[in-house]
Design brief:
The complex is a heterodimer of chains A (231) and B (80). Chain A is an alpha/beta fold. Chain A is 20% helix and 26% strand. Classes of the chains: A alpha/beta (231), B alpha+beta (80).
């Protein structure tokens, strides 16, 4: 008999767009039972083994992208799960939300060039502390970004902390893993594309792994994250 | 009773919109602009029977929890 499927909550804020893509990517691995959870609930329905905060435009990006999520009922439960060590991944707007509710340090500012960017990027896996990265084999993944507010910013002290505590999960890079201004699509500090919290269980990233996870995707580099969590 | 929250971007944080505006102003012939910054203002009107002290506290909470992000913003509040 195969192992029971892990229940993964996929949070749906008003204006979230990528919840179905994330659920499909999770289901595609065969290891998960994704559960769509409205952000209006004040707790998760039953025990869960992980949480996805998907991309989109929650609350219309009012105030700042992700800022209004602080007022959502589910946010308290999300904080509690983060403290309990539940694996959590925030993608794109989900990353912005995790920063705005202070589960992750820093903030996502408007891109260096002020434009929305939608294209494939190369990412160097810098740390495998997140359960979504622990079993990722490749050092370089190709995963697309699609955002206007993706420029990671943190104070010099916070950046030093992130570095010292091995919290930098991904850096934008070229096909060989090198990073410079030309490989940095949005001006992110230290070329950062994703970070974790201090404990490592909360991961935020701007690129969309769920968009490179399906049989019809042009490749399946994004699957590595879901498969890592499945192990 | 009304309180105003003013939110400004901290020194050293890039503001691409203002940089672009400054560049465009220069290109269109406007002289002498050394720096451009924008602030956001939020006015919060409270029920008449609320104590001033409580109104100030609520304003601070809203400013701190929702309107500003301490990583990039400085904020002040003042009665209007």
């Amino acid at each position: 008999m195969s192992a029971p499927k892990k229940r993964i909550a996929v949070i749906d804020f008003h204006g979230t767009l990528c919840e179905r893509d994330c659920a499909a990517a999770l289901r595609e691995t065969g290891a998960f039972e994704p559960v769509l959870v409205s952000a209006e609930l004040d707790q998760f329905p039953g025990p869960i083994d992980g949480i996805v905060v998907p991309g989109g435009f929650s609350f219309g990006d009012y105030i700042r992208p992700g800022a209004m999520a602080r007022t959502a009922a589910i946010t308290k439960a999300l904080r509690r799960e983060a403290e309990l060590g539940t694996p959590i991944i925030g993608i794109c707007n989900g990353f912005q939300i995790l920063c705005e509710i202070r589960l992750l340090p820093g903030v996502l500012l408007k891109n260096r060039d002020g434009r929305f960017i939608c294209r494939e990027t190369h990412l160097k896996v810098e740390s495998r502390r997140s359960p979504f990265l622990a079993h990722v084999q490749n050092d370089i993944l190709r995963i697309p970004i699609a955002h206007k507010y993706g420029q990671f910013y943190a104070s010099p002290e916070t950046l030093a902390d992130l570095e010292a505590n091995d919290q930098i999960a991904f850096r934008y890079c070229d096909a060989d893993g090198g990073s410079n201004q030309a490989t940095n699509p949005n001006g992110s500090a230290s070329h950062i594309a994703g970070i974790t919290n201090r404990a490592g269980n909360v991961l935020g990233m701007m690129p969309h792994p769920e968009r490179r996870s399906m049989p019809w995707s042009q490749h399946q580099d994004g699957r590595a994250l879901w498969e890592s969590l499945a192990q | 009773m009304k309180y105003r929250v003013t939110i400004a971007i901290k020194d050293g944080v890039l503001d691409p919109e203002m940089e672009t505006l400054q560049r465009l102003l220069k290109r269109s012939g406007v002289q002498g602009v050394a720096q451009l910054a924008h602030t956001q203002q939020f006015d919060i009107t409270f029920a008449d029977d609320l104590e001033a002290q409580q109104a100030e506290q609520v304003t601070k909470t809203i400013a701190e929890d929702v309107l500003a992000n301490p990583e990039i913003h400085d904020w002040t509040i003042a009665p209007v």
